[in-house]
Amino acid sequence: MNFLEERIIKDGIVKPGNVLKVDSFLNHQMDIQLMEEIGREFKRRFADKNITKVMTIEASGIGIACFVAKEFGVPMVFAKKSKSVNISGDVYVAEVESFTHKNTNQVIVSKMFLNNDDHLLIIDDFLANGCALKGLIAIANAAGASVEGLGIVIEKGFQDGGRMIREMGYDLESLAIVDAMDAENGTITFRAQEDK
Amino acid sequence: MNFLEERIIKDGIVKPGNVLKVDSFLNHQMDIQLMEEIGREFKRRFADKNITKVMTIEASGIGIACFVAKEFGVPMVFAKKSKSVNISGDVYVAEVESFTHKNTNQVIVSKMFLNNDDHLLIIDDFLANGCALKGLIAIANAAGASVEGLGIVIEKGFQDGGRMIREMGYDLESLAIVDAMDAENGTITFRAQEDK
Questions:
Q1: pLDDT(A83) > 90
Q2: Are β-strands A76-82 and A53-57 bridged in parallel, bridged antiparallel, or unpaired?
């Protein structure tokens, strides 16, 4: 097990309905030393890429993306959720469905902060159905920026997002892939990943 | 001028209606080296406080609060905006009015992550009317936690929030206090602060 899988086993809580609560260290309260370790690990995994910018989506991706961007020495930009029906022409827009909240958000990135010279590393805390990542990829494509890689902290391997993103040809790295969870006895089964 | 005032003069954009756009380095795209410098500066200003946790509110406070928490070597917790009408009993709740979005959000913090042993440093990117800070203070009070200080990156000194929070007796430090802005010629007037 890597450091993240160990932490999930230690402090993650499995709830009915395939819910994995990691809000004591990842997405509500944040363990900053863990964030720094995650940043270093993504830097190691994408060390051969010439990254110019890290991109994520608000809110819980922001902290992680900050520490990844710190390792690469580049700026971070986060897509903002927008309720406005009138989106001005100076932003890239994507629709992102939320299964948690059962709604669709428009997410936007200002055209000032992405262009066709950018080589992006896209970061997020969770990957399940892949809607958020596909929205961020659509924004990158609209800007003409290249997506050099995608880094996810926890992938729900029993949902479709990871498979779809990999089949699209993207270099997707997930620090932990949860293949199964059992709320009755609290067990979590991780997918074996070759030693990266 | 301190490093932040200099950066605001260099890259901030004054828009009509007393709007200061700092989204190229602070709250949409983030300059990570600047975030680190902000973290060190708040550590310096609150060096005599025994901080156990940094608290902020999603979304744009998260990145800054992460780097402040890193300096203090403590966890960070962010209040989440919640649309749920049914808030469960395991969270602290506050109402936060947003003048930007002309609505009221409930913000919540899990009771697991705040208690009466906590000594909090509350961090946010902007202070205008003070609604967000007052919501965070209400949550701290509900938890019985002590608010050791509040650190703001940019305070709009011509709005009421800063004065109100200081009159309540809190130790509020703003790295830059904007007393006036002129959209016609782009000038920004900072309040003189004693050398901290």
A1: no
A2: parallel
Q: Residues of A at the B interface (Cβ-Cβ below 8 Å)?
A: 23-24, 28-32, 35-36, 58-59, 62-63, 66-67, 69-70, 73-78, 80, 83, 101, 109-110, 112-113
Please state the pTM of the whole predicted model.
0.96
Q: Which ipTM score applies to this complex?
A: 0.95
CATH T-level assignment (fold) for domain A3-190 = Rossmann fold (3.40.50)
**CA–CA gap between residue B73 and residue B77 (Å, rounded):** 13
Domain ranges of chain A: 3-190
Of residues A101, A171, A86, A186, the one with CA closest to residue A133: A171
Nearest to A92 by CA among A149, A55, A140: A140
Does the beta-carbon distance from B83 to A77 stay under 8 Å?
no
Best CA proximity match to A88, nearest among A55, A110, A57: A110
Instruction: Read off the pLDDT of residues B43-79 as tens digits, 9 standing for 90 and up.
Output: 999 999 999 999 999 999 999 999 999 999 999 999 9
* B3-80+91-186 to CATH, choices 3.40.640.10, 2.70.70.10, 3.40.50.2020, 3.30.565.10: 3.40.50.2020
Nearest-CB residue to A59 (from B32, B59, B69): B59
Q: Is the pLDDT of residue A11 over 80?
A: yes
Question: In this structure, what token pair is assigned to residue B168?
Answer: 């309540």
Cα B126 from Cα A66, distance rounded (Å): 19
> How distant is the Cα of B177 from the closest Cα of chain A, in angstroms?
25
